[in-house]
Amino acid sequence: MREKGLRLPLSESQSYYDLLMWFSFRKLWAFTGPGFLMSIAYLDPGNIESDLQSGAKAGFKLLWVLLGATIIGLLLQRLAARLGVVTGMHLAEVCNRQYPTVPRIVLWLMVELAIIGSDMQEVIGCAIAFNLLSSGRIPLWGGVLITIIDTFVFLFLDKYGLRKLEAFFGVLITIMAITFGYEYVTVRPDQGELLKGMFMPYCEGCGPVQLEQAVGIVGAVIMPHNIYLHSALVKSRQIDRSSKKELKEANKYFFIESTIALFLSFLINVFVVAVFAEAVYGRTNIEVHDICNATGILHLDLFPLNNETLQVDIYKGGVVLGCIFGPAALYIWAVGILAAGQSSTMTGTYSGQFVMEGFLNLRWSRFSRVLLTRSIAITPTLLVAIFQDVTHLTGMNDFLNVLQSMQLPFALIPILTFTSLSSLMSEFANGL
Predict the structure, then answer these.
(1) CATH number where 424 lies
(2) Which of 171, 213, 257, 378 could form a disulfide with 35 if both were Cys (CB 3.0 to 4.6 A apart)?
C-alpha cells in the first residue's frame, strides 16, 4: 500500500492516466440506450417460455447452452453495432446496396416472417399475463384484443424522443429484474447445481426432448431481426465518421454498453431457468394437483390425476408457482410476463420499420407499419385463443421459437459477410 503523501512512480501514474483517458462514464452514458433497447429481444415472452421449459425439462443442465448463446449473441450484436457505426448505414440498407433483387427480396421476406413471429409471441405473452392477473376474468381472446392498444401507447411515447423511450424501457427491464428476481429468492435454487449447470458443458441423461430444448434456447436468444435493429439504433448517436478516433471510441462504448445490457438480460433468464429447475423439474401431475388442491388455487383441471412428468408453459408455470409458493408468486410472475411482452413490442416495431425502409426504400409512418404487422400477428393468435385453449396457444409459442432458429442464417450470413469486407469497413473489417 502506498504511504500517504508519496507521489506515484512515473509508470504507475501513467497507467492511471491511461485508464482515465481510456474510459469515461460520461461518454458511456452518452452512448447508453441502443444496447438496452436491443437487449429487450433477449427477454421477450418467447425467451421466458424457452427458459422455463429448459428448467422444467432438464433442470440446471442446459444453463451452459443459455450462457453460450448469450455470448454468441453479444459477438453478433457487436458486429451489428460496428457496421452501423462505421458505414453510417444499417444492415438492411447495406443488403439493399450489395445484393441483387431476388436475394434481397428473399431476405426481406424471411426477416419480416421473423418479426411477425416475434410479434405473435408478444401478443401471446400479454394475453396470458392479463388472464393470470385477472384470475381468469379476462379471457385469452380478450387479452389478445387488449394488446392492440400497445400500438397506440408506444407510438404516443415515441413522440417524446428516443432518450425518453430508452429510459422507459429501462424501467420495464428493471420491473422484469425485480419480479423474476423475487421468484428466484422465493424458490431459493441450489447454487451448487446452478453453477455446475452453467459452466459444465454436459447434459447427463439427456435425450431428444432436452436436445430439442437446447436448440430452442439458441433460437429464442439469438433473434435475426434484432441484428438488423441494433445496426440501426446506433445511428441515433452523432459520430464524425471521418475521424478514426471517434469511430474507435463509439465502437468501444457501444460494446461496453451491449455487454452490460446482455449481462443483465442473462441474469434475468437465469432467474427463470433456476426457478423452474428447482420448483418443477421431476414433479408429477398428481403431486402438483394435490398441492394446488390443498392451497385452494384454482385451475386444478390443468393437472390430470396421473404420475406422468409435469409439463409446464408460461400459463401453467404461473399457476404452479402460485400453488407451491402462494398467490403472490403467481401475480408477480404475471407482472414480469406482462413487462416482457409490453417491452418487446417496440423492438419489433422499430425492426420492421428499419427493415422495410432499408430493403424496399419504402418510408411508411410508424403507425401504418405497426398496424400492418400487429394485424398480421393478432389474426392467427386471436383465432387460436377463441377456438382453442391455452395449451394450444403456448404450443404456438414453441413453434415460433423453432421458426426463429430457422430464420437465423438470413441475418448471420449478411452480417458476417459485410463486416468482413475491407472495401466497406476499411480497417474495422473482421480479422481471420
Answers:
(1) 1.10.4160.10
(2) 257
Answer whether residue 358 is part of any domain: yes
3-state secondary structure of 284: strand
Q: Tell whether 231 is covered by a domain.
A: yes
Q: What is the pLDDT of residues 4-16, one digit of tens each?
A: 444 444 455 555 4
- The radius of gyration of the chain from alpha carbons, rounded to an integer in Å, stands at 23
Q: Which three cell numbers stand for residue 257?
A: 454498453
The verdict on residue 311 lying in a domain is: yes
How far is CA 83 from its chain centroid?
A: 21
Specify the DSSP class assigned to residue 9. P
> pLDDT per residue over 356-412, tens digit each?
888 888 777 767 766 776 677 677 777 777 777 666 666 677 777 777 778 888 889
